[in-house]
Design goal:
This protein is 22% helix and 21% strand. By secondary structure, it is of the alpha+beta class. It has a three-stranded antiparallel sheet with strand order 2-1-3, covered by helices on one side. Strands 4-5 form a two-stranded antiparallel ribbon.
């Protein structure tokens, strides 16, 4: 059962590959990638795959060179050095409940 549960969980991407429009700074194509900028084409929808291949084709004409951006640090990077206990927030926050079914951070 553990292997079934583990194999069905997909890690959240920590990086994105951004192709910024040269004509309109408010427009960009953004795709999940690894730290080296590799995009898993099989994981993209057909439309996203088409947009990715298009953006790569028109780099320098319509879009800038792609840039790899970190979305957020991995949780392990937030833990204090040598932390061996259960995960916790290093800044001392505690989890509290508000109304039924809602959670907040105190």
């Amino acid at each position: 059962m553990d292997s079934l549960l583990t194999s069905s969980l997909q890690p959240l991407p920590h990086y994105e590959l951004r192709f910024q429009s040269l004509a309109d700074q408010g427009r960009a194509f953004v795709f999940p990638c690894d730290a080296a900028g590799h995009v898993d084409l099989d994981a993209l929808s057909e439309r996203a795959r088409h947009n990715y291949l298009y953006a790569r084709t028109v780099v320098g004409r319509e879009f800038s060179m792609p840039a790899v951006t970190s979305l957020s640090p991995p949780v392990a990077a937030l833990l204090p050095q040598g932390h061996a206990g259960a995960p916790s927030w290093p800044w001392g926050a505690t989890l509290r409940t508000g109304r039924a079914g809602s959670l907040g951070v105190a």
